[in-house]
Structures are given as C-alpha cells and as structure tokens.
Amino acid sequence: MLNQKIKILTLGHLPTYLGGRQSSGLAYVIWKIADSINEQNSKNEVLFVSTDIFKEHIKINSTHVFGWNKSMILITAILSPLDFISFVLYSIRLKIEYSFNFFNTLAKILLVNKLIRKNSDDLKIIHAHGVNNFIILNGLAKLYHLKIILTIHGITGHDKNLEGWQIQRKLEQKITKVKSLSTIIFITTAVKLLWNNLYGSPLAPGKVINNGIDTNVFFYNKRLTQAYPVTKIGLLTIGNISKLKGQQRVLEALIQLPDERRKNFRYAVIGRGTEKDIDALKTAALKANLDFEYLGYLEPAEMVKQIHQSDYMILPSSSEGFGMVYLESIACGTPVIIPKTLPLASERGILNPVNSIFIEDHSAEAIKTCLLSLHQSRFSRNEVSDTVSHLTWNKIAVQYMELFDNILAEK
User: Fold this and answer.
1) Same domain (yes/no): 240, 348
2) Collapsing DSSP states into helix, strand and coil, what is residue 332?
3) Exposed/middle/buried for 212, CB within 10 Å: 0-12, 13-18, 19+?
C-alpha cells in the first residue's frame, strides 16, 4: 500500500503531566523522541507502549499509546498457552539473572508481543531505551525477525550511588557483545567514549544523537524574571532527591560558607523524594538558618516559572546520561552550574562559558569554591537562551528518521 506507514515500536513510561506515573527526565525524553517523530507526519510512525497506563489504546498529541490490563494476561494465557508459558519462563530467568521484577517483565513482553502480532505487516523496527528494556525486547525482535536499535541514555554500571549498579554493569557488558543490534545510539559523545573505555567497542555500530528541547515550553520570558527578589542569589536544583543528584551536597556547601556569604543565597529544590530525604533537607537548612524552600514535583509550566525566578540552576550529579534540565534551564535564560566530569559538560556545541559555570566535580567542596566567587559572575539571559536554540526536538526527530531509513535499506 502506497500510503502505508513504516511502524517503529518503542517501550517507555508516560510522563506524569500526560497522565502517567513517571516524573523522571528519562520518561520525558523517551516520550519526546516518539511524539516528535510522529509530529513530522512522515512515512514513519512510532507506536508508544506504556505499562504504567491501564487503557488499551489512547491517542496523545500525535502518538498512539498502548497500555495494558490484567484481563489481557488472562486472554493471552487462554488463546496462546505455549507462548504464555514461554514468556513466563523467560521472565523467571530475567528475575533470577538480573533481579528484574517478574510481573512487570511479563506484562511488557505480553503487551509488546500482542502489538507486534497486530501490526505484523507494517512493524519493522523495535526501539529499545536502556539496557534493561533491550534485554526484555531483544527476544521478541529475534522471534519476529525485526530490526532492533538501542538508545543508551547513560551508563549506570559504574556509579556506586545508584542502587543495583553491579547488575547494571553486568547488563552493559552483555550489550557490548550482542550481534543482533542494528545500532547503538549514545546521547553524547562522552557517554560513547566512556562505554568504550569501560567495556570495549560494541559489536553493533554506534551513533551519537543528542536530546532536544521543547522550545514551546522552555524559552526566555523577560516578564517571568521580574517576580523574584534581587537581594539574594537564587539557586535552584531540579531532580528527584537522592545522593546521585546532590541536593544535600549543595546544602552542605552553603552551610560551610561564612555567615555573611551564606545570607546572600536562597535555595529551592524541585523534585520528588522520600519523606525521610525531604525532612533531612529541611532540617539541615533550618539548623543553619538558610533561606530554603522545597517545592515538590512541578509540571513543566510551573517549573519554567521557578527557573526564570532563579539566578542559577545547580545540579551536582555524580553521574548523568544527558541531563535535560541543564538545557531546559539554559533555554529559559538561566545559566547552569555543572560538574565538568559529566558527559554533557564536554559535549561539543552545547555548554560553554556563556551559559554555564563548570565546577571540578560533584563534591560539596567544589560547590563551595564556586559559591564563594559566584557574585563575580555576570550572564546575559538573552545570550544564555540563544546558545541552545538549535537543539529542537524536531531536528532530533529527523536524525532518528534518517537512521530508520538507513537500517531498513541494509540487506
């Protein structure tokens, strides 16, 4: 059929602001890649599979989203008992080998299998995000003779601040030796180089495609900057509260400042966290008499207001794949404070002295050193915003579509 679209299946989580249950940057990025490709109205169509919604099919923006429910498992077991047994055994194996959640893994396999069968004539590629999902989906790709690509959003097998990092290292080592992969996409050059240094060059071809910015949401609005007090330097951290993201380290650095310098700062945190972690931040700030506010989870429109009302977005993560909030802050005209050890810090053509302050590492001492001289920094918000205007999701979508064409052209 001349007008038939080539379909690509991707597995992700629907972001909270769209009705899902995930507030992570990764969920947002996976969604934006899929929806931005569909917005192009090209010959490609991405089917978005999400196991955190319980409707069989809905359409959001330009994208068809497919969820699941418990009756689906029962129907599959009745109609295809041999397949069901096979999928159960595979899910048990992944539970034993990699501590995957059995029911979550089984649900993903059943849902993806159902959609592959339903779209068998047009579905050509499976797009996996992260090593865990690749391990789950690769068996189905082989079973139905589909091409499979993998986007690596970060390397999690070397950061001891991450729970289960040893298992992630085992998975990443395995991916390096997989021959069935059509392409591994790395979101920065530094992530690709680090992967090669840790595990050796993958057998699959590698390609770098950066993430983009939703310029319809994140852009400089001078009016929004006029609402915040100019008497203090406003610091903002965006990210779920954890040792990885480093909110506690920012507080430690502020507490270590001389009293007169400490009074010059106000600090706000956006992101979810456990009650214990939130209380720890509030208690530490209160004891040190810091101007501190915990804002919780905010949807994008509210987050934009807070970015504009801050002088700097500081996120001293011990590791990041890309770090979308750095770009989103810069797009709003707010410069960022970032450890130079993170992949994004060295990515060509993105961060520079016009839009960023680079600190030595993610430690409280490095943050403190920066804060002691922060009054010397001067940034033009217009110039800051202009530095990332080229990183739109539409341009990123085009790079993915070109990759799809190249893969399907291969014999």
Assistant:
1) yes
2) coil
3) buried
Does 269 share its domain with 327? yes
Could you tell me how many residues make up the chain?
411
pLDDT in tens, 280-334: 999 999 999 999 999 999 988 899 999 999 999 999 998 887 888 999 999 999 9
Provide the token pair at 119: 């779209």
The residues facing 254 across adjacent strands are none
Do 19 and 168 lie in one domain? The reply is: yes
Neighbours of 138 (CB within 10 A): 19
Number of domains in the chain: 2
d(CA 17, CA 122): 30
For 367-393, how does the pLDDT look when each residue is reduced to its tens digit (9 = 90+)?
Answer: 999 999 887 567 899 999 999 988 899
Closest CA relative to residue 151, chosen from 119, 195, 215: 195
In a domain, 366, yes or no: yes
Provide the domain limits for residue 123: 6-212+392-409
202, 265: one domain:
no
Q: The tokens of 24 are what?
A: 């992570």
What are the E-state strand segments in 225-311? 233-238, 265-270, 291-296
Cβ contacts of 285 within 8 Å, gap of 6 or more: 251, 267, 292
* Burial track 260-297 (b if 16+ CB lie within 10 A, e otherwise): ebbeebbbbbbbebeeebbebbbebbeebebbbebeee
Tell me the CATH number at 187: 3.40.50.2000
3-state class (DSSP) for residue 109? helix
Give yes or no for a contact between 19 and 136, defined as CB atoms under 8 angstroms apart: no
Who's near 194: CB < 8 A, 6+ residues apart? 155, 158, 343
User: Block means of pLDDT (10 residues each) for the chain, length 411 residues?
Assistant: 78 87 82 94 92 87 88 78 91 94 90 91 94 93 94 83 83 91 92 91 93 91 74 91 92 94 94 93 94 93 93 91 90 96 89 94 95 81 92 93 91 61
